[in-house]
Amino acid sequence: MATWADIQSWELSYVEEAEDLIEAKVREAREIIADLEHAANDIRSQGEGPDRMRERLTEIQDKLDSRLNELTEYALATAELHGYVSRVVAKRKSAWEVAAEVGYDIPESGVVQPSLPEMRFEPVASKFAELRDCVDDAVRIATEAEETVGPRYQALADGQYVLAEGRRSASAGLADDADPSWSPEEVSVWWALLSESEREALINKDPEKYGNLNGIDMASRAKANELALNGHLDAAGNRIPGTGLIEKTQNELDELNQEIERMREKGQGIPLYVLEKQYNLQNRLADLNAISEQLGGNAGATLLVLEPGELGENVRAAIAIGDVDNAQHVATFVPGMGSNFRDNGRLNVEFAKNLKWAADTYGAPTDGSVAAIAWIGYEAPADITKTGDLSVTSIDKAEAGAEKLNGFVTGIHSWRSERGLDVHQTIVPHSYGSTTAGIAMRDIGEGVVDDLVYTGSPGAGVHSVGTLGVDADHTWVSATPHLDPVRGIGPDSTFGRNPEHLEGIGHLSGDTSGGEGYKHGIWHRPDGNHSSYFHKPETEDKHNYALEDIGKVIADRKKRQ
């Protein structure tokens, strides 16, 4: 079992160096095996001599294949270790930062035991609780790494590792398909080692899987999701009828409507479960059509997530504006209560576009270097004002969404790192989405997310900025003072503190008064300006200073005063 003292020496750079070395060897081995295959195929002559040559080449290929399988396992095990060490280092850093904030020295044992007066009053008591969690989590993750990755290395050292897929499989020396248990880091290594033709074959074979696989490039995800949405292709490049989600959902709804009509013609009552299924299918179809409309209505838009979920759930999706694989700056917008594509997909994509515009305009980065994502990749709580659904008062959906958001942004980072490309990632969550993002950042790996901007937040998901896996100097909050009652409304005990009150957070402008549709005066809905952070200026001579500041953060041009 790992200890707090053990992990003080853990460094991510050591793992990264090992990864690069092993992957280079895997690529070299795959090239050699391919060359030998070509050489064997080039021996056209028949007879005893050519046969012996072919036999000998086959023996060499088989031996190399065995070594390649071992090298590949080393690469994947080291990638898994990378994910663990990244989280341990981030948790360790968080512990140090929270400890510094409360003036506490973490003992070598890692046992956090504050004095009674320190635990008697908020928010100090909550900060100490988070400090204890950071230390315990770091040790737990390190122990899990030892127990999970250690046996993989041991099997290799003992000569016990066997990969069933040999050089004559679909991808020689590599697994033919991604394992569901793989981390984004493992997926990125495996995907990078595949050839373009091997990747293409996997996308065409199972677009539903590869459209949502964290760790592969976003262009591949977008291609897979387009196939999943609109229909798979046959060998000639034609759509296969009945394979796209839109068509399948429409067909299922049509059949159900026909069945309902037959019941009515017979004078039968329609069971409630049938009507419920009809309603749910209508919503699913509306979600899918809205997604399709946003893809068709926005130049360069790509679909990075497409998860229909269970019938009755919203279709979870994410649409990007810009080239996520190559942009220098990537912003992920996370909306809150009531978010789904059928009701407000257009608006949320518009907000993502406005964030990109603000970064391009006020951050002034190199042309084309900003991409923005409207991420509705979780089941957001229904709008309590329309449905009476009380799920928004709980953080259950925030915790479930946090895991999905963490995996998504980690996947972006791991693929870019695999290619040796830096990326500056910013998370811009709003409303309930800000609590979701705050919880996600508690378990994020080192260096994955560079900036976090809370907007209209009911609660930060934490009680100390140090708990977030983001440098404290790169945590921000924007809060409009007029007609945004959601700010800080969540109970601190569950939703975390109002980010406006977090010590050490950077305060961006909350002045949204120059934005389109801003509600002046008091004769409006109490939440009339709750989304005003993301509206462009009403006229050329006006400013939405909140949006401008957020744009500067996205472009990495905002500095603490």
What does this protein look like?
- This protein is an alpha/beta fold and 561 residues long.
- The protein has 16 helices and eight strands.
- It has helices spanning 12-42, 48-102, 116-119, 124-157, 184-193, 196-205, 207-210, 218-230, 245-265, 272-297, 341-363, 384-387, 396-418, 432-441, 492-495, 545-554, and strands at 301-307, 316-321, 329-334, 370-376, 424-429, 451-455, 475-478, 506-507.
- An eight-stranded mixed β-sheet has the order 1-2-4-3-5-6-7-8, with helices on both faces.
- Strand 3, helix 11 and strand 4 form a beta-alpha-beta unit.
- The relative contact order is 0.08.
- The mean pLDDT is 92.
Enter the CATH topology name of the largest domain. Rossmann fold
Radius of gyration: 26 Å
What share of residues are in beta strands?
5-15%
Shape: globular
Instruction: Count up the domains.
Output: 2
Low-confidence sequence ranges: none
What would CATH call the architecture of the largest domain? 3-Layer(aba) Sandwich
CATH class of the largest domain: Alpha Beta
Strand order of the largest sheet: 1-2-4-3-5-6-7-8
How far is the N terminus from the C terminus?
Answer: 44 Å
Mean pLDDT across all amino acids: 92
Number of strands: 8
Number of alpha- plus pi-helical segments: 16
- Structural class by sheet pairing and helices: alpha/beta
Helix content: 40-55%
Most strands sheet: 8 strands, mixed
Order of helices and strands: HHHHHHHHHHEEEHEHHEHEEHEH
